[in-house]
Amino acid sequence: MRISVAGTGYVGLVAGVCFAERGHQVTCVDQDQAKVDMLEAGRAPIHEEGLEALMRANREAGRLSYTTDHRGAYGNAEAIFIGVGTPELPDGSADLSHIAQVARQIAESIRQDCLVVVKSTVPVGTNHKVEQFIHDFLPARADGRKLRVEVASNPEFLAQGTAVRDTLQAARVVIGTDSAWAEGILQRIYAPFGLPVVSVSRRSAEMVKYAANNFLALKISYMNDIANLCERVGADILEVAEGMRHDRRIGGHFLGAGIGYGGSCFPKDTKALEHLGRQHNYRLRTVQAAIDVNEDQRTLLFRKARNRLISFRGLKVAVLGLTFKPGTDDLRGAPALSNIPLLLEQGALVTAYDPAGQERCRALHPEGEEGEGGIRYANSVREALEGAGACFVFTEWPEILSLSPQDFKQRMRTPLVYDGRNIYDRLAMLEAGVEYHAVGRRP
Ligand SMILES: NC(=O)C1=CN([C@@H]2O[C@H](COP(=O)(O)OP(=O)(O)OC[C@H]3O[C@@H](n4cnc5c(N)ncnc54)[C@H](O)[C@@H]3O)[C@@H](O)[C@H]2O)C=CC1
Ligand SMILES: O=C(O)[C@H]1O[C@H](OP(=O)(O)OP(=O)(O)OC[C@H]2O[C@@H](n3ccc(=O)[nH]c3=O)[C@H](O)[C@@H]2O)[C@H](O)[C@@H](O)[C@@H]1O
């Protein structure tokens, strides 16, 4: 099938490349010329394992192209997937301006019957509005025949760092439409994937996405809440999680306590769902609790360290990990970005290391930045530790995970470690003479 995809970010690009991999003819559209130039040169603007290899193979097979020309791309597409951003507005609601812009471009461009599919995460009712919006802008045709344009929901569940695998081997594909015509097209698009398809109404599909993300966020905040109590009563959250995960009703995923969830989605999707509730005079108390716990959790270790050290002024602080999780170069919502400004304000001399997120962080916090403290970037995780008086671990990249207690003991001036991901052996650290603070662990 001839498919166009609007947006070449984590969702749009991966979807487009995977549709091509499954045999469809795909055009990826982005308004950002620099991104399209990069894609044309065979490079992915995002860090995702296996993506560039698939881009190359499908480009060579003639099934994949990139363009900024939305008119050409949407004009004769049989299906157009929308994967543009829906970021958070100051009141917590989702900013739908990019979606509206694409809807308008589609209306101005299409020349044949076409199914529009919203992959972006959007509040319940948005698909309906997009459909109306497109119809409002559809120009009258010379022959008087009205084009058939419908909008269906197909929320995306991939996680960054494993995006290609999560798409090609998704646990399920959710399609939301109230029309047999639209469902038929979506079934044909997904047939070559051989994945379980859950077909629901359009509004339910929109809600599935928020309900799933919010449930996962709630799980994390719940574990962080319990972790904070563990610290106060002398229990250990890792042992507690181990005792919980064997219960299949609970499951072993997303029980990881630490410095809270980050990323471009959980923080915004919790707020957007809470906002949707308020719009409908319903207070989602569980979701609000998840948001509140997460807000506090992000700077928990900074506050602990400030109490312990009294002052950061002139102290060399190693920051290990900048991205919101390993396997991605994405800094959106990263806990490190909530802590670095606090450390700099307090006069710390930060040395940061991240294998993928360093360049993006440099753009936000340039080396030698004016201020009380300063930041520089190390070439290796071990270099970052050299001579440090304190260390914060924010992302569990493999090279950070593999550090031994001796690495901290021998390289740091004062081996004082704040581990936001609970990744080190507490006893081994103590035995090596490292002062080790984690989240919800036994003292
Ligand atoms: N990042 C993730 O892991 C996931 C994201 N989502 C949802 O998918 C949506 C997209 O997220 P990301 O891919 O992370 O966004 P992103 O910010 O990485 O990419 C969005 C892209 O859309 C482009 N764009 C904006 N307006 C455009 C237009 N009119 N025409 C063509 N391109 C345009 C931008 O230049 C950008 O390249 C959001 O709603 C998000 O909540 C859903 C599941 C996973
Ligand atoms: O809508 C989205 O964008 C996506 O959001 C998440 O994916 P992602 O944000 O890429 O990453 P996750 O692996 O879910 O991690 C999110 C955050 O939670 C944190 N986390 C995760 C698991 C855990 O046990 N504890 C914990 O603190 C991670 O460190 C990270 O900061 C969901 O997992 C995807 O299913 C969803 O499609």
Describe this structure in words.
Residues 318-426 form the UDP-glucose/GDP-mannose dehydrogenase C-terminal domain. It is an enzyme of class 1 (oxidoreductase). The chain is an alpha/beta fold and 443 residues long. The chain has three domains: 2-200, Rossmann fold; 209-296, N-(1-d-carboxylethyl)-l-norvaline Dehydrogenase, domain 2; 298-437, NAD(P)-binding Rossmann-like Domain (Rossmann fold), CATH 3.40.50. 44% of the residues lie in helices and 14% in strands. The chain has helices at 10-21, 33-40, 51-60, 70-75, 97-109, 126-137, 163-168, 180-190, 202-233, 237-245, 266-279, 285-297, 300-309, 335-345, 358-364, 381-385, 398-401, 405-411, 426-431; strands at 2-6, 25-29, 64-67, 79-82, 114-118, 149-153, 173-176, 197-200, 316-320, 349-353, 374-377, 390-393, 416-419, 435-437. The strands form three sheets. It has a six-stranded parallel sheet with strand order 3-2-1-4-5-6, sandwiched between helices. A six-stranded parallel sheet has the order 11-10-9-12-13-14. The protein has a two-stranded parallel sheet with strand order 7-8. Helix 14 links the parallel strand 9 (316-320) and strand 10. The longest helix has 32 residues, at 202-233. The relative contact order is 0.09. The model has no long low-confidence stretch (mean pLDDT 96).
